[in-house]
Amino acid sequence: MLNCTSSKTVRNLVMSIGILTASFSHGGVRAGTVPIQVASIREADFQIAQASLIAEMEQEILRRINQHRARKGLSALSWSSDIAHQARSHSRNMAKKIVSFGHQGFSERSKAINNSIQSQRTAENVAWVASRRDPAGQAIEAWLKSPKHLQNIEGNFSMTGIGISISSSGEYYFTQDFAQK
Prior knowledge:
Elements: H1 7-16, E1 18-25, E2 28-35, H2 41-71, E3 78-79, H3 81-95, H4 106-117, E4 121-129, H5 135-145, H6 147-153, E5 159-166, E6 172-180
Parallel strand pairs: 3-5
Antiparallel strand pairs: 1-2, 4-6, 5-6
Helix pairs in contact: 3-4, 5-6
């Protein structure tokens, strides 16, 4: 149990917290910490808030895509954390300019999805939005106006995962991957 008597103690604890590591050698145990890179409590709070906003946007996209599918008489897509992992990774890579905006690496993501959920087929939609005014809504609207993206949204798929990342300049990158199990 940890007893803290001042806010300075708590702040120092938060700033120095790390991931506990342990190693075993010659019958003994060695423990230590690996520091987490957090510049300030304010930055950590911002990162938590941003992650929460992104998770809400991902679920909002799922809800709105499923509403569209319902209007067309199609079954709802179920959320897959495995698929979302692939979508998030791709959005993060686009936001960090590791890959160009587009579908670069989709065959590898498709294989990873197939390996994790044994899917029959996969598809992908990506979007880029520079505006902070309802970026998720803008991505959905663009997808619904595009015949190829709409084909994926209305396709014979049962599962989806969505990933969103924000670049250092505030641009939103969206990836929605689809799979049929």
